[in-house]
Amino acid sequence: MAAAPVWSVDPRTGKQREQVAVEATSAEVDAAVRAAHDARDALADRTVRAALLRRAAGQLDGAGERIVEAADAETALGPARLTGELARTTYQLRAFADLVEEGAFLDVRIDHADPALTPPRPDLRRYKIPLGVVAVYAASNFPLAFSVPGGDTASALAAGCPVVVKAHPDHPATSELSAALLRRAAAEVGVPEGAIGLVHGFEAGIELVRHPLVAAAGFTGSVRGGRALYDAAAARPHPIPFHGELGSLNPVVVTEAAAEERAEEIGAGLAGSMTLGTGQFCVKPGLVLAPRGPAGDRLERALADAVSATEAGVLLDHRMRDAFVDGVRERTALPGVEAPVTPGAGGEHTVGAGFLTVPADRLADGGAHDLLLEECFGPVTVLARYTDEAEIGAVLARLPGNLTATLQLGAGECGAEGAGDGAGLGVSGGGTGRGARLLAAVTPLAGRVVVNGWPTGVAVAPAQHHGGPYPATTSTSTSVGGTAVERWLRPVAYQDTPPALLPPELREDNPLRLPRRVDGRYEG
Q1: pLDDT single digits (tens) 157-216
Q2: Catalytic residue list
Q3: Residue 422: helix, strand or coil by DSSP?
Q4: For residue 15, what is the enclosing H or E element?
Q5: Residue pair 58/97 in contact by the 8 Å Cβ criterion
Q6: What angle do CA 280, 277, 446 make, to 5 degrees?
Q7: What is the pTM of this model?
Q8: Are 57 and 94 in contact (CB under 8 A)?
Q9: Which residues is 129 bridged to in the sheet?
Q10: What is the DSSP letter of 492?
């Protein structure tokens, strides 16, 4: 039977643009993984890895116009958004190159032998080594930053792990172009092109996570797809780490004081955040707890005005468009739910932004309204109107894990002191103010807590954490920022090992000039 073709499709029309590839067979997946496995030694030198990452960034920059054109044709995200995403992607590659050269991520630790201790301590030397071939599952909504040249690939290469990427079907041409540029960069620095593999097709994705030479996997996508791969990774004869980003509601709590002070500003900011990228960001605020009463009404009117002024947009594919329309229809039909600005189909190929409202106590009761506590991918959010802190606490107690949680606080709520015991939020008060109580209440729910801002926009920075409790992610790691490299490493300790046999990273004279901790003291 002939292999199924892989088509590039224009989401603005739903029509096929060109055949890009064919879906990979089991033999082709095996060949890609084995080629990546064979390239491991070429990535052992940190100098080579840093050069590869920088050369990859340069190749992407040099082909910027072609990349943006290809990605826009397949995703309809627009040249401005994609140009920014490309800049973020190349910055990320260069940031990992810097991290590789610094070497602190190896976490070198040396404890010299001490026979005077009880019990005596042997000579111990510990650092981190790469796991092996990493399977990367590209995201639909970020054809660059979370796809072939994105954070999983960059951090895996930084760790010394070759990759095989399973391309997302929404942007196969962009994936092929990006992979070709990465392979060219590899060849230019003397790394086998097989260090960056690419396969297409659903079955190829399953074959990839099951391959015995794949040592770990990174995924960004739906709860359903990610959970299936996570279970497959765990069911292997030798289970492997699966770092998946699956889904997130990203709740927002607006206090009454914040609404009284700046209802119009909050309403406009919320509209901008929930409609950014046609509502297709993984950190889109999907549930907003806002107070009942005049201040909350002002916020709702401001949100309605801003959302009504938003033009209809194109989602990444027509399957997502249909799921969005059906999801909105199902939610709107629930008792007590209203649609001040009705989201849904904006045309044959587009969707219109909108939002739903519901009394917060409906969400605290469970039942059919639990649907409102699930992510709806697209430009819609739910405004839940509460009467007091007890209702806020009851809703927060029912939320699953999230990538982000946001607080909109009043000026007087940003300090630690204030009245109230926090009983309504289920946290201890002890004289702390409302802001501190809310911060304590949302921190267990998310990997990143935002105060008086909006969650859309994930800065690539050393202190960033892009992850959260399940189902936001399947591990405690981050997929953005320097510590993302830790996902693809494992520690190993050498005990009483003759100096001549030690790896250079652990030798006494520190020939590689690495930051390390010796007998408990840090040596930068």
Answers
A1: 999 999 999 999 999 999 999 999 999 999 999 999 999 999 999 999 999 999 999 999
A2: 245, 282
A3: coil
A4: strand 15-22
A5: no
A6: 50
A7: 0.95
A8: yes
A9: 490
A10: E
